[in-house]
Specification:
This protein has about 130 residues and is α+β, with helices and mostly antiparallel strands. The chain has one domain (about 25-125). About 45% of the residues lie in helices and about 30% in strands. Strands 1, 2, 3, 4 and 5 form a 5-stranded antiparallel β-sheet that branches. A hairpin with a 6-residue loop joins strand 3 (about 90-100) and strand 4. The longest helix is centred in the middle third of the chain and has 41 residues, at about 25-65. The radius of gyration is 28 Å and the shape is elongated. It starts with a helix and ends in a 6-residue tail after the last strand.
């Protein structure tokens, strides 16, 4: 049994000296890249939730100010692109669509444009009286 153990030990030592069982640097790079990508994804998800909440608040407030019904109490993302804010910082420009009603019997479309968490434009569309 001792001879078999020494033979295995010498094989493992020879493989280590040859560099076969050494850690690979590309594996470490892959792990770091994966963690970085996961971190970016989590940041994007949390930032999008905050921006969506701000868009819902702004849309609801505008509908209330104009005596309109904000339907479904939600907004839907239409587009997301990088853009520069007024101070020159790179942020995400998001455009959300929502629906409202002026009579309670119809659905009309509106949109809210945001850069970061700041509302840039809110459009309620044409209404016929």
């Amino acid at each position: 049994m001792t001879g078999l153990f020494r033979l295995l030990e010498s094989c493992v030592a020879a493989r280590y000296r040859a560099g076969i069982d050494r850690p690979r640097s590309h594996m470490l790079t892959l792990e770091i890249s994966s963690l970085l990508a996961l971190g970016v994804f989590v940041w994007l998800w949390l930032d999008s939730l905050n921006a969506r909440d701000a868009a819902v608040r702004a849309s609801r407030a505008q509908c209330e100010a104009e005596n309109l019904l904000f339907l479904d109490d939600t907004v839907a993302i239409r587009s997301i692109w990088p853009a520069r804010s007024e101070d020159g910082r790179l942020k995400l420009r998001r455009v959300y669509d929502f629906e409202y009603s002026d009579t309670g019997n119809n659905r009309r479309r509106g949109s809210v444009t945001m850069i970061g968490n700041e509302v840039i434009a809110l459009h309620l569309g044409l209404r016929f009286f």
